[in-house]
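PROTEIN DESIGN WORKSHEET
SECTION A - STRUCTURE
LENGTH: 348
TOKENS:
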């Protein structure tokens, strides 16, 4: 038994998304049924449906930034009530028992994390994501959304927010630390807000000067265009932490030159090609590292942190019929700064 709900899906790699339906399982003892209100469009959705991260089981409904309200709970669920404001991010299940799950890093479950879409689920089906009107999720993967964040600004915190908060926290962003954010898109704009709220001195490194005014409004202290070669001379040896959110290949060596001694460059953007790094550039005890989303505890921490600091995503709400157009604008670096789908416009 299952329920059929309206959704948007990619029929095949590289094809435009189309209206469709997906099946949602009956609410099990530990499940929560959520009425999805807004679903963010992450660049990872685009990489995935275009087949850039390997073959997928099409048709595929993406979406792993989900905000909505609890519509029903299973009999064993004690932590959620109908009507609660909730979120779901990039994962919907994990084994809960392996060393990585026990330490709250379910995104690295040794038994295989069940990601929110395109992932083999425990029942043998392929998970389908948040570009739909309802989802059914294990209660352990449902996040509480505190008051203080506008409904339409919540969803991007569930992926873009935690993905940038996690490395900033890990590498100690705070007062006295100089943080550079490379790429001012969905992840980048939240990185700026979060690093600023942590007390760091924040610099945005963007391809052009087009987003300068926005960056300063978001909380950046400085802004430089990476198209200007002088930027790399002026800022040589400056930063303690660089968060690279760029979705394309980047001259990593040039950015390593901007790190101070003991600095770290954390790559959260997923470049298509392998990186080339001259070893000498790491000699100042510099770290070149990566980070992938965040576990459930830190995702909750992000929502609480953002509520406390008045942080929501800067969003452009779009009807379902404009999803493909939104994808094109993301690809053209023309997102200001996250598209969020109004799920009331999804009809089967
Ligand atoms: P986005 O909104 O498209 O932002 C990416 C930004 O990168 C663009 O706005 C642009 O900023 C810059 N950029 C794009 N193409 C570039 C190029 N050719 N050269 C230099 N800069 C370029 O994407 P997003 O949703 O923030 O995601 C960013 C990346 O993170 C994607 O690869 C995504 O898959 C990945 N991601 C990773 C994780 C993780 O767990 N590690 C989680 C979520 C997403 P400017 O216009 O300012 O230059
Ligand atoms: Zn994402």
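SECTION B - SEQUENCE
RESIDUE ASSIGNMENT:
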């Amino acid at each position: 038994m299952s329920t059929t709900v309206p959704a948007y899906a990619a029929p095949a790699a590289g094809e435009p998304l189309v209206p469709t339906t997906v099946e949602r399982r009956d609410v099990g003892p530990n499940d929560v049924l959520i009425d999805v209100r807004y679903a963010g469009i992450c660049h990872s959705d685009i990489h995935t449906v275009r087949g850039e991260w390997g073959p997928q089981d099409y048709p595929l409904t993406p979406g792993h930034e989900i905000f909505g309200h609890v519509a029903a709970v299973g009999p064993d669920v004690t932590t959620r009530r109908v009507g609660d404001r909730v979120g779901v991010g990039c994962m919907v299940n994990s084994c809960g028992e392996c060393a990585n799950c026990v330490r709250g890093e379910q995104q690295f479950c040794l038994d295989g994390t069940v990601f929110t879409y395109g992932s083999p689920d425990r029942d043998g089906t392929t998970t389908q994501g948040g570009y739909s009107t309802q989802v059914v999720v294990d209660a352990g993967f449902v996040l509480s959304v505190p008051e203080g964040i506008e409904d339409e600004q919540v969803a991007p915190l569930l992926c873009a927010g935690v993905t940038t908060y996690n490395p900033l926290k890990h590498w100690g962003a705070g007062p006295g630390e100089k943080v550079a954010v490379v790429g001012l898109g969905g992840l980048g704009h939240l990185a700026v807000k979060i690093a600023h709220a942590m007390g760091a001195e924040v610099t945005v490194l963007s391809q052009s000067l087009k987003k300068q005014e926005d960056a300063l409004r978001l909380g950046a202290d400085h802004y430089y265009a990476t198209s200007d070669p002088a930027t790399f001379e002026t800022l040589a040896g400056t930063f303690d932490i660089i968060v690279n959110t760029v979705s394309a290949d980047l001259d990593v060596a040039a950015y390593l030159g901007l790190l101070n001694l003991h600095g770290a460059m954390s790559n959260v953007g997923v470049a298509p090609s392998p990186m080339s790094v001259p070893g000498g550039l790491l000699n100042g005890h510099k770290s070149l590292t990566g980070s992938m989303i965040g576990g459930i505890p830190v995702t909750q921490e992000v929502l609480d942190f953002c509520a406390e600091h008045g942080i929501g995503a800067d969003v452009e709400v779009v009807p379902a019929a404009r999803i493909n157009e939104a994808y094109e604008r993301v690809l053209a670096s023309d997102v200001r700064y996250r598209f969020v789908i109004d799920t009331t416009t999804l009809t089967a």
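SECTION C - NOTES
The chain has a mean pLDDT of 97.
The radius of gyration is 20 Å.
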